[in-house]
Amino acid sequence: MSQRMAVIAGSVLAAALVLSGCGSDDDDGGGNEGGSGSAAAEAKVLAKVAQPKVGEMAGAMGMWTTDKNFVKAGLKKISGYPLAGGKAEWEVPLTGEVCWSSETPTKDGKVAVVFQNDKKDPSVCTEIGVVDINKGKLLWHKQATNEYGSAEMFDEITVGGGTVAAAGTSASAGWKLDGTPLWKPSDETCDTVGYAGDETKLVAVRDCGDTDNPKLQVETVDPKTRAAKSTYKLPQGTEYVHVAAVDPLVLAADDGKSQGGSGISRFITVDDSAAQGKELSTIPVGGGKHGKYEADCPATEVTGCAQLAVSKAKNALYLGTSDPASSSSEAKNDLVSFDLRTGKQLRRAPGSDSGRLVPIGVDDSGKVIAYEEANIAREAGGAIHEVDPATLKQTKVLQHPSDSYEMEARFESDRRTLYSGGRFYLGADHVTEPSTVYKTPQPLAVVYGEK
């Protein structure tokens, strides 16, 4: 396993999602408007993606859905399966293990991946590719060479404003989605740590300091030239910064004292409409009087934050807490929403009394989707809840079976989640060695649903 894969082992990845609809303008901490409805469908395990046999951990980062397929990165390949599970309908072979991938497909179904090359150097991530997951086809595969003629190594990759942008410890490179080069690795005044993006926007994180004294800044850049349109300088003492959402621009800053190794000390909302970015609000993850929050970001990468949701329509952030506010509450934790303009809490509501409840996405109507984790003590499967973004009232829509609770719970330390078309997709970002503790082999991914 490469060094950078060892760094991210155990971290989870999921996109920070833009939601429509939001909470009220109430800033008094909200009320306890939680509670699940009775509309839950009894789900079953529709399919499992078998885990390849390996001698050590290998990268398999990437999971998406299209109108036709559930797509999962596996060992040195990306495969498209029927939405309800079954044998792979197509496979895209790669030259080595997947190191990183863009979080969400473009509107026309393209994702970017960085992977290894077993024939040249299997320990580093030098290969850049774009895969059309609608067609199951690798559109192009390239390397970026440095001034010495060697293939540059990259840590992560994203797609923003039609640009494929990759960054590593020493350089960055960019291409159009059709593979046309935009910029090559070169000396930069400030090192590029990584990029984040969406359909129209590309954001860069740069370090103008050194290892012992980082000086981080976040730039909204021109996707074609990477020239800065807006620059926000992080406060002194910030060791890492992750981009939790691009529009609005929400940062997850780490001063090295993040709660439980979450990679987040505080959230910062930035107005990047002017050349000099302006801080609008700060939300400490320690929580102060409101408790602690359970969002999670990878150790050093810019993208990959999970267990949170961001609303562009109402400028709100949704998080799960570590514990319920009330000592008498039967809920495992609470859900909270914050006004990104002021940093004030809008609403708080108790979650489930079975498993911890975490936001993972949004449906087409704008409702927040929350995942209720499996409960080992109760031998209970997890569940999916629709959450009203204004009141945080929850309605359970899918109950996972109890006979697979152990398998479901084993995904907790390395998971990626998707809810689409009434089905829940749960996958791992790494292929791992067979367990010496559990007798049942753990799948790489599993599909839950009615049919």
From TrEMBL:
Query: Where does the UniProt annotation place the signal sequence?
Result: 1-20
Annotated keywords: Signal
Q: Which SUPFAM superfamilies match?
A: Quinoprotein alcohol dehydrogenase-like (SSF50998)
Q: Which residues form a coiled coil?
A: none
The record ties this protein, via InterPro entries, to: Quinoprotein_ADH-like_sf, WD40/YVTN_repeat-like_dom_sf
Instruction: Output this protein's name.
Output: Secreted protein
Which species is listed as the source? Streptomyces aurantiacus JA 4570
